Structure formats: structure tokens, C-alpha cells
Amino acid sequence: MTIQRWEQQAQKGRDLLNNSVPKKWLAPTDQLPPVTQKNVLDFPRKSGLLTERELRITEQSATDLVSEMGKGNLTAEEVVVAFLKRSVLGHQLLNFATEFLADEAIARAKELDAFYQKSGRLIGPLHGVPISVKEHVGFKNKTCHTGYVAWVDRVMDEDAHLLQLLWKAGAVFHVRTNQPQALMHLCSENNITGKTYNPINRTLTPGGSSGGEGAALAFRCSPLGIGTDIGGSIRGPAAFCGGYGFKPTSGRNPMLGIHVAAAGQEDIHGVVGPMGPASIDDLELFQKAVIDQEPWEDETSLVPLPWKNATPKKDMTVAIMWDDGVVRPHPPVTRALRVAKEKLLAAGIKVVDWEPYKHSYGWDVISALYYPDAAGLQRQMLRTSGEPPLPLSDWAFSYGRPNPLTHHETWKLHCERDTFRDEYNALFKTRGVDFIISPNYPGVAAVMGESHYWNYTAIWNLLDVPAATIPSGLVVDAKLDALTDEDRKYVPRNEADEREWRKYEGPERYEGAPIALQVAGRHFKDEETLAAARLVEEVVRDGKKGPAV
Questions:
Q1: Residue 5, domain member (yes or no)
Q2: Whether the Cβ atoms of residue 115 and residue 183 lie closer than 8 Å to each other
Q3: Is residue 48 annotated as involved in ligand binding?
Q4: Residue 233 annotated in ligand binding
Q5: What CATH number should be reported for the domain holding residue 331?
Q6: What is the pLDDT of residue 1?
Q7: Are 209 and 352 within one domain?
Q8: What are the residue numbers of the active site?
Q9: Would you say residue 45 lies in a domain?
Q10: Cα dist. 210→178, 194, 226, 391, 452 in Å?
Q11: Which domain does 145 fall in, by range?
Q12: 120 is in an annotated binding site
């Protein structure tokens, strides 16, 4: 059988990954769980390959790790080694990594420990915190293929601006993570690294496009991760994997050195933001560490807006969006929204229902603006190497108009986008609502290959408002989430509604999956949105934090 040229190129990326794996920490293949085992979260503990101390380290939040290192109870080196060991096990089961940075990470940790020993203080707010990084965030002297075979040989000249700032804050980068072909799936599969799996249920996707991050964080391969988001690529994986994610308003976090095929696209701005397995506190730690360094001094597209402390207020008004008017959520998601409303009301927080406003129209606008050239650049990237498009790539490309937009058509869509933003903002004000709680997706984590509907997250990208994903503390339940007679009589309103509703054949398909909530705020109210998400979680989960599974 003849090996095609694109497959030879893709193999270079696989070789890079395989050569970077620290072999001494691999689990023997005969000790791995069977491929039929869905939930593999307990493997690090059951395998006996990590010490009890390493297990405790990898189960702590980033905030707590910094505190422990500041007290001298932990060293940066032992923290980094613990997460590296767990990452190797995680990759064997989930295929989430594109490259391990073990030697560099351990050397960096030793430097931090030497600094602490000499000075008696931490070098910065992220001292010694291992951070996993989505692959298309550029590293100096490292390849950056962005999920395209055509870019397997592309090497970066410098670190992304965000990485430079996190480094100054004391972070350690130990592993790079997988993303989908063309970066536009709510799944993570490409022709180089392959498919990434969800450790909670390996028949389900960890989401995308930051799905490598989602899987890694759920398995506790790092306490903080870097994702990017132009339609839900932080929040989807956070929701599917039972963690936390934050999409800031564009212009807050630095984007220089983050690589995409359509560089210079100004129609819908992608953003970069934090993801984590443990708490909102860690997302805020990340945001503050970055923005306190005033990144706008070097990246002039950023807004010179310092990070401020925001306290959650119980006198806020929260709206529940039960349905976006296009696609009905699955029973587990509706149950989580219902529980959230009941608990918030019981806590004395004002809760109202949110009538969705023109969400179908909003999708028409943003889907056209994703690909103003009819995905011409992305298709050309595939043709350059000869690699075949994956099914979800073809699905995403179909969102665009059949032919490239003219300048006038693009300008008209820009006007529609901006008018829609103003109209939606006015609704926040006239309805007296501070924050909206909504689904992240019609269901919980999607079955592999079935993640088609983005607009529960993409609507907030179109509006360019901050949004945070948090665990509800609930998981799919065989009894509580069974289809009722009323559910079975439901008549879908449109083709998308029918497609998504028919996927829910019952809770068995989604065994063990966590149920997430999304909290959206108003433009540039990033700090307030995180504070509101913290309060919502505190109330809904009775003070608990972290994953529910």
C-alpha cells in the first residue's frame, strides 16, 4: 500500500510527539484499562504509579499549590514532576498531547526553587504552577501546526505574548495539547495527532477546539490550561469535561503569537483564556497575573483596562435562558437549570426567565462572518498538503456562504453584528438583568462525531461579552433524566432542533457525564462575570468546588 505524501508529513508530527514522551513514566500496556472501559479517572490512583504525595499534589488547585510553595511545603520541581507523570498516564489513555516539554519544565522548576531558596519569596503569582498549552499558541523554536498537516514543519521565532507574561509570573509549561483540524470543531481530532478522548466517558468527546485541554484538565494533568475561543472552544471542553473555563471580552488578553489560518480576520475576534479543573479562583488567578502586567503596553490592540477586584453581590438579578428558541436542551441540562433556579431563589437572589432574542438571526450573522471567503483559506491549507478534510471540518466549512462575500456584503454583516450587540445590551438594561445563566450546549458532552450545534456558546462570541463555564455539581442520572411521555411527544421546530433532539435517546448514551452551567455578563464586565459565576456555583453546589465526577 502506497503511503501518501500528506501521511508522511503527518508522521513527522507524530514522531515529534512520541519522541517527547518521557518513557520512564509510561504505564506498562498490560496494566492499562481495557479500551471498553469508559471512565478512567481513577487510573492514576489505582495504577500505583504515582506516590500518595504526587496524587495529593495533582489534586490541588493552582491557588493552593502557589500557597504551599510559598510556605516552603512544596518545591516547584516536585510539583512539575508530579503533573508530568500524571500527564504521561493521561496521554496513554486519552491521546490529548501534541508535545511534552519535560526537560524544559524540570529545568525551569529548578530555577524557581533556586530563586526561592536564595530570596525566600516566590518569583510571581504563578510561581511553579504547571500550565498546559493548546498547540496553536506559539513557542519559540517549536513547531506550531495548528492541526494542519501543511504546517507540520513550521517553527516559531518567538513565544506568544501570553506565554511571555505567564513566564514572568512564574508559570511552568510542561505539555502542549491537541486541537481539531482547522480549529473549528467542538471535538478534537486531526490527521496528525488523531482523536482525543474524554476521561469521564471515552465514548464522548472532550469538546473542541480546546479539547486536548479539556481532557488533560479533567484527568488532572495540569492545574491550569490555556484555551482559545471563537465560538465556544474554551467553554465547550470545560462543560464536557466537568471543569471551568472563561471566555473574556476581546481586547483583554494578549493574542500575539497565537496562530490560525485566517490571520488578520477582524469579523469575529477569537480570544484566549484560562481553563481549570478546580475553581473559579484559579481562572481569576490567571487573569490577574496576565493583566496586572499591562499587556497593552506592548500589544496595542488591547484595551488599557486594569484588572479590578469584584465582589459577588446577592442583590444581582440573574436570568435563566431555558432555551435559545432554536434548539431545545436535553433533559439533563434542563434539570440543572431548574435546580439552579430553585437554589438561587432560596438564597434570596432575584431570578427571572430570559426570553431569547433573535438567536437564529445571530447564528446566521456569525456563521457567515466565520468564513467570509467561504472557508477558502482553510480549504487551501488542506489542499496544500493533500490531507483529506474530516467530517466535522466539512460541517464547519458549510456554515459559510457558498461563495465568498463581497466587500459590501461583509460591511453589511458588520453593521448587523454591531446593531445586534447594541440591541442585546439594551435588553440587559431594560429587563434589569445583570447576568444570564444558560446551557453551554444542547446536551452534556456529545457523542464522538456528533457535536454540531454551537450557538449556545457562539452567541456570546457574536455579542463579544464575557462568559464562564462552571460545573453544576450534577451528573446524568438514569432515572431523573429519562425521557418522559411529554418529551416523547415533542415536535421539533426546525431541522437543527430535530437533529439535536433525536440524539437524546436516553441517559444511557451519556453515562456519568457532568452537567455544566454557563454564566454570561455584559461587555467588558469580565471581573463581575467571574464573581457572579463564583457566587452561582457556591449557591447551586452548597459551597462545593471542583468536578462532580
A1: no
A2: no
A3: no
A4: yes
A5: 3.90.1300.10
A6: 61
A7: no
A8: 134, 209, 233
A9: no
A10: 7, 14, 8, 18, 16
A11: 15-30+51-297
A12: no
